[in-house]
Predict the 3D structure of the following.
Amino acid sequence: MKRVVVTGMAGITALGDNAIDILENLKKYQNAIVKMTEWGKYQGLLTQVAAPIPAFKEKEIYHRRQLRSMGRVAALATKSAEMALENAGLRTDQKIQDGRMGIAYGSSSGSPEALSHLMNTRFNHNIQGINANTYLRMMPQTTPVNMGVFLGLKGRIITTNSACTSGSQGIGYAYEAVKYGLQPMMLGGGAEELDITQAAVFDTLFATSCENNNKPQLTPRPFDKDRDGLVIGEGAATFVLEELEHAKARGAPILAEIVGFYTNSDGLHVTQPNAETMAIAIQGALDNAHLPASEIGYINAHGTATERGDIAESKATYAVFKDNTPISSLKSYIGHTLGACGAIESYISIEMMRHQWFCPTINLDQVADECAPLDYIQKQGREITTDYIMSNNFAFGGINTSLIFKNWH
């Protein structure tokens, strides 16, 4: 089996699109949540808050011809992949186009805007708005396919269309492809674009934040007694993974090593999380990395600020770590980026590890009584020197993932 290292990574988030800006914004202890005044026209919608990325304008980045098959989600994915490859020193290297590099990538869905054009046909009996590229923009595999075509990659493509674990499974399956010698290089990650339909889905489940529509800076509140639900966000993050000797041979920068990954399914309910199987996934990643729980210096929580999710996750984490390991949720800053969250949160967590500073969960004033008594980072960031961090994600369908990254010295 091969050792797998991260030689490039990049993210596009509501806090910025580079590590320096993102870390600086985290240290302000302010989130990127805003009131979506344009959502007021949707009858019955309760939530009015989200974390958009207004600075990302795909039509200013890519030519109209390039965007024919790309919705916003594919453009976010492709741009973050370009940035990650640049970070790895591979953007113009022809080696990535000879079959040595593959992709494992996903999102919760394709572009909802393109899907709406198809729905117009079904409900209004009119095919106006549909063209040859409509399906390419809305299909579940739109992110890895568009990335592959744009970058000329000829290796394997794995589509991870698994809701909130799309990004973490993307990284995990890319890790396994390199670890077992199937590809020397892989891109892994996830992306999501912000759309009203996503907010509406969670709204119907009474899972969205709506009590702070006029005070968006006060929500979401993961693990807090006054939490009232999740906030939708958008973004993308891409990792360049390489087999260690391959990376060394080309003198690549090495940012971290992936040492553990595990994914499983609750097998019980499509929307109600299960602490027992979550704990199995967490322990599975530790076993995969051959590490005791005591070696993990920080845990990035899924931390959605939903009641069932927070309680189950905290109990699962406590079952493995007790109250010995610092934990916080990045969703308190950028909202729930759905299919992108596992990738974005892993990217930022690695950068925090490299800078030996970890953010608190903002808006966590008083831990809910129902949540397990973990070592929650609150109020202020914490300086921590550690060689290992964990990032956990849990999705609709009962899909659980856990990733472990090692610092590179």
Summary: The chain has 13 helices and 16 strands. The chain has a mean pLDDT of 96. The chain has two domains: 4-249, 260-396. Residues 390 and 404 are 4 Å apart (CA to CA).
